[in-house]
Amino acid sequence: MILKNKRTRERVQLSYTEFQVKFAKEIQTALESYIKTENAKPYFKTNKKPESDFYVNLHWNFNHFGISNWYIECM
Fold first, then answer.
1. Which residue, among 39, 72, 40, 70, has the nearest Cα to 57 in the 3D structure?
2. Which residues pair with 5 in a beta bridge?
3. Which pTM was predicted?
4. Using CA of residue 16, residue 20, residue 22, residue 26, what is the dihedral sign?
5. Which end of the chain is more exposed for a tag (fewer CB within 10 A), N or C?
6. How many CB atoms lie within 10 A of CB 3?
C-alpha cells in the first residue's frame, strides 16, 4: 500500500503488516470514530461487528475517520 503525507507530499510504500504496526494509534482513532458514527445511526442497532465493517473498506475509513497527516493513496 502507498501512503502519502498531506503536508510534505512524501510517499511511503508499506506492506499491510507494516502499516498496522506503524499506524496502530491512527487506526484505533479512526475505528473509534467510525463506531461512534455508526452507533448514532438508528438502523445500525444490530448484532453486527463494526470492526469487521471498518476493515472491509479500510482505505476510505482510514482516510475519512482518521486524524493523521498520512492518507492511503493506493492499496
1. 72
2. 70
3. 0.84
4. positive
5. C
6. 21
